[in-house]
Write a structure and sequence with these properties.
296 residues; two-stranded antiparallel ribbon
Length: 296
């Protein structure tokens, strides 16, 4: 059985050269507010670094800007929160299963945490129940978390409900931590907003939405075939995807869902990005970390 973490690391190497990966590490390191840090060493300044971290005396001696690097005095906890209901077994915008996109995103953030010496845990589930795996260090543990998500998501699973997983976190986790939430295109309601406000007051929260497959208007031969909605097994006749009226209605509904989700997350100060394929994950995670840092 191939290693999911190895797949994640391979894609990180392909899509992020050394400088970009260093910037990604730096963005991750700035996530936690009030982090206790000890000086470690100096490195070359990279675009996006905080000006306040420049060591001006050392830079003058060296002839180019140098950044102070720090190591954490205490270990942080990163909690990966995701949905393993059948909605996540459906196709993503890029055509691959949404599970693959979710595993890639969880793997990237989990691996960044591992590189920084942090511990990583997992909460996952569906509308019927949630379960957790304790936060630990090490690549073997991270592989176990990714395998749990990958193997638990199927078209035969109960329906998705990320609200159930978030409620589980609110009930069972009191320690301040970083929550990295990966979900599909949910439509937030008032109850979800109250729950997120409670979580946001206690934790650092980052959110990545996995985009659904485009079911109307896309210029692909596959749309001539009938499909079904994984949520309720409803038939989606392929011939309707070419209808102008269906395309307009579908586009309007999608924009409304996106706007509602973005409005709630922005109002709560939760950094949010979207990814339609595993190829989108690396730039999306970098953008997410940068938005979170700037938002603070």
């Amino acid at each position: 059985m191939s290693s999911l973490l190895t797949r994640v690391k391979s894609k990180m190497s392909i899509f992020a050269h050394r400088k970009a990966r260093g910037m990604l590490d730096g963005e991750y390191g700035s996530v936690f507010k009030g982090r206790s840090l000890d000086f470690d060493d100096l490195r070359a300044y990279l675009p996006g670094d905080e000006v306040r971290d420049i060591d001006w005396k050392a830079s003058a001696r060296h002839g180019s800007p140098l950044i102070k690097r720090y190591v954490a005095v205490r270990r942080q906890t990163v909690l990966l929160v995701t949905d393993t209901g059948r909605n996540m077994a459906a196709s993503s915008l890029g055509g691959e299963p949404k599970t693959d996109v979710a595993v890639m995103a969880l793997g990237v953030v989990g691996y960044l945490a591992h590189r920084h010496g942090d511990v990583v845990g997992l909460v996952c589930g569906d509308e019927t129940s949630s379960r957790s795996l304790p936060a630990k260090a090490g690549e073997a543990h991270l592989e176990r978390l990714l395998r749990e998500v990958n193997d638990s998501t199927a078209l035969t699973s109960p329906r998705s409900s990320i609200g159930e997983q978030l409620s589980y976190v609110a009930r069972n986790f009191g320690q301040r931590m970083l929550l990295f939430v990966v979900a599909d295109e949910l439509v937030p309601d008032a109850g979800m907003e109250r729950l997120l406000r409670r979580l946001r007051a206690q934790h650092e929260v980052l959110w990545l939405t996995v985009r659904d497959a485009q079911l109307a208007g896309a210029q692909t031969a596959a749309l001539t075939a009938d499909r079904f909605d994984v949520a309720d097994a409803g038939l989606l006749p392929g011939r309707l995807s070419a209808s102008d009226a269906v395309i307009r209605a579908y586009t309007a509904a999608q924009e409304q869902r996106d706007a509602a989700r973005e409005s709630v997350l922005r109002r709560l100060g939760i950094a949010h990005v979207q990814a339609g394929s595993s190829h989108d994950v690396m730039p999306a995670v970098f953008t997410l970390l940068e938005r979170h840092r700037r938002g603070k």
